[in-house]
Design brief:
single chain; 406 residues; alpha/beta; Carbamate kinase; Alpha-Beta Plaits; VC0802-like; 3 domains; 6-stranded antiparallel β-sheet; 11 helices; globular
Length: 406
């Protein structure tokens, strides 16, 4: 007998028909002799609808109250799925994150899991119950509900699999697995049979919406056997493991992230410590910085440009404008009309021609590059948001990713 953790996303539980389909899958695995823990997301667009309702009431709601509100979406899914499983004649119990023992830190809206007390979970499993857990949430030292950030149900599932020492963690979604590019953009995108933890982590961090990046990080840390597959068919999906088939493909995937804003701090005094002052101010407010570019400005000054998430734009501008004197800058400019397009592959590190091939693809497509950042496993460029899909297609075609037997 195996212990299996399954996670079903919002589209997989979006309505009564989809819930019945998920219940059938869960019961089938249970009746095959497996112990089952199932994590669910909120149905369909429920989270977005709740956010809209919140802003109709208060345009600047506190993060604590937003967590209280948004956590209800997963609770609805868990209870409804439990009812669907009951209808099929199996013993089942639905649990909130708190009831499942998931404790987090106190960063409302983007909390991190600190510990999972598995006593209740094992008690329910010992009583032969199918256990359904609300994804995306936990509780903090103040007994408040916290949420793990968008996509956090993946992290809930992987964390439970690690804590329970599950034999397998299956992430069910509305796509067949991990592809070389978004198949909605690139028609000949290919599904990968397997991919390494590191490659998947890069793709998830760079805009691929298949998995929450923190879930991949946790799976790698605890050696969780992880598979991504569709809840709508019986195809095998993509296995995420320690080492993928890096020799066959230099580039494993192309992705884009439209959730990007660019900040330019203009005419910064050219002396030691200014960059530290600027970025320490933002770090204090837990604003994550991505691509950074420093260039020569006017009159022996520097211009510092960097990218952030769009959600952090207003806060970032407020912080910098309030500290222009402290960081010796003339002004700050911004734009949210950019997209980050990236390629990822563990095989890139020993192949210096990869970057030039990517830039050639963009040149051939007449797409201008605004910023560039590289590492051993990724190359990212900033392009105009209206050019992003064309950029992804051009790069995918240039590397012939649709032709590989993956």
């Amino acid at each position: 007998m195996s212990l299996i953790v399954q996670k079903y996303g919002g589209t997989s539980v979006a309505n009564a028909e989809r819930l019945a389909n998920v219940a059938g899958r869960v019961v089938k695995a249970y009746r095959e002799g497996n112990s089952m823990v199932v994590v669910v997301s909120a149905q369909g667009d429920t989270t977005d609808d709740l956010i809209t309702k919140a802003y109709e009431i208060n345009e600047k709601p506190s993060q604590r109250e937003m967590d209280m509100l948004l956590s209800t979406g997963e609770q609805i899914s868990a209870a409804l799925l439990a009812m669907a499983v009951e209808k099929l004649g199996c013993h089942v119990v639905s649990l909130t994150g708190h009831q499942a023992g998931i404790s987090t830190n106190s960063q409302y809206g983007n909390a991190r899991i600190k510990n999972i007390d598995t006593e209740r979970l094992f008690k329910e499993l010992d009583e032969k119950n199918i256990v359904i857990v609300t994804g995306f949430q936990g509780w903090n030292k103040y007994d408040d509900i916290t949420t793990l950030g968008r996509g956090g149900s993946d992290t809930t599932a992987v964390a439970l699999a690690a804590a329970l020492k599950a034999d397998l963690c299956e992430i069910y979604t509305d796509v067949d697995g991990v592809f070389t590019a978004d198949p909605r953009i690139v028609k000949n995108a290919k599904k990968l049979d397997d991919i390494s933890y590191d490659e998947m982590l890069e793709l998830a961090s760079l805009g691929a919406n298949v998995l929450h990046n923190r879930s991949v990080e946790m799976a790698k840390k605890y050696g969780v056997n992880l598979v991504v597959k569709s809840s709508l068919n019986q195809l095998p999906g993509t296995v995420i493991k320690e080492v993928g088939n890096v020799e066959k493909m230099l580039v494993r995937g192309v992705t884009r992230d439209n959730d990007i804003a660019r900040i330019a701090v203009i005419e910064v005094e050219d002396k030691p410590g200014i960059a530290f002052k600027l970025f320490s101010l933002l770090a204090r407010e837990k604003i994550n910085i991505d691509v950074i570019l420093q260039s020569i400005g006017k009159n022996n000054t520097k211009d510092i440009s960097f990218t952030i998430k769009k959600a952090d734009l207003s806060r970032t501008l407020d912080i910098i404008n309030a500290n222009l004197g402290a960081i010796s800058a003339k002004e700050v400019k911004h734009s949210d009309k950019y997209s980050k397009v990236s390629i990822v592959g563990a095989g890139m590190v020993n192949n210096p021609g990869v970057a030039s091939t990517m830039f050639e693809a963009l040149y051939d497509a007449d797409i201008n590059i605004h910023m560039i950042t590289t590492s051993e496993m990724k190359i990212s460029v900033l392009v105009d948001v209206g050019e992003a899909e064309r950029a992804v297609s051009a790069i995918h075609e240039k590397f012939k990713l649709g032709e590989h037997n993956v």
